[in-house]
Every structure is written in structure tokens, then in C-alpha cells.
């Protein structure tokens, strides 16, 4: 039996999955996540998009601006559509900038825990996760 089979769940979990796992069909007006994000940027540019635990905030407009700058930089450095990019950073505003930058470039992001120590990060086989593993692209 495959590990993803419903049979691996308890009977109660299977019942709950059947009850709550299938909602009504909803038409989503955007094909891409970053297209939905850009719609929010257009309609609410000055609204706070994110707040870091240290109190730092960023508006949708500023997040979009920073993501566009980084996206263009990644493309200039050779990022191509469908490439994978490891994002090795702790949860932060910069993490969001990285995610949207990669998506805007047409690539895929692979989030890795930015809290791991540098020695452990050097041991990761980034090439297996990512087409581009340059840690300094955002600098």
C-alpha cells in the first residue's frame, strides 16, 4: 500500500477527510499565486503585507518593488523559467521577498530552514534540490 493511501489513516481520520476534505468548487480568478499578489498590490498598495516578530513591517507595494528588483537580478544571473532556487533564510520579510521574486521569474522555490548553522548548510546537497544554489544572489 502506498504511503499516501487513505487506508493508512485511522477510520476516524478517513471519515473526517471525507467530511471536510472536499469543499464546493470555487473559481479562482488567477492562474498564478504572484498574479493574485499583484492584484492586491494594485488594489491595496499601502496596506501592511507582513509584520515580522521584531515589529518590522512592509507594505504590498514595497514588497512587490523589492521582489521585482530581486527577480530581475536573478534573471540577469541566469535564472530560467522552471529552474529551482533554494531559499535558505529564516522566516522573515526577506523570505517573502525571495519567494515572490522566484515566482515572478517563473521559477520554483525550495524553502530550507535558515536557522541551520553554516557548517550544516554546507553539507546539504543543494544541487539535488535546486538548479541554482547561490547563497549570495540577494546581496
From TrEMBL:
One of its GO terms (cellular component) is cytoplasm. One of its GO terms (biological process) is amino acid activation for nonribosomal peptide biosynthetic process. Gene3D superfamilies: N-terminal domain of ligase-like. The keyword Methyltransferase does not apply. The keyword Phosphoprotein applies. GO terms for molecular function: phosphopantetheine binding. This is AMP-dependent synthetase/ligase domain-containing protein. It comes from Xylaria bambusicola.
Amino acid at each position: 500500500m502506498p504511503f499516501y493511501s487513505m487506508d493508512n489513516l485511522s477510520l476516524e481520520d478517513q471519515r473526517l477527510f471525507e467530511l471536510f476534505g472536499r469543499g464546493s468548487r470555487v473559481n479562482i480568478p488567477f492562474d498564478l499565486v504572484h498574479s493574485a499578489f499583484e492584484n492586491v498590490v494594485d488594489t491595496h498598495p499601502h496596506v501592511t503585507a507582513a509584520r515580522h516578530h521584531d515589529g518590522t513591517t512592509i507594505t504590498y507595494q514595497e514588497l512587490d518593488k523589492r521582489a521585482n528588483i530581486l527577480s530581475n537580478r536573478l534573471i540577469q544571473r541566469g535564472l530560467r523559467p522552471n529552474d529551482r532556487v533554494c531559499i535558505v533564510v529564516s522566516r522573515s520579510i526577506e523570505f517573502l521577498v525571495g519567494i515572490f521574486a522566484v515566482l515572478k521569474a517563473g521559477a520554483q522555490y525550495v524553502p530550507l530552514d535558515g536557522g541551520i548553522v553554516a557548517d550544516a548548510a554546507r553539507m546539504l546537497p543543494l544541487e539535488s534540490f535546486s538548479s541554482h544554489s547561490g547563497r549570495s544572489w540577494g546581496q
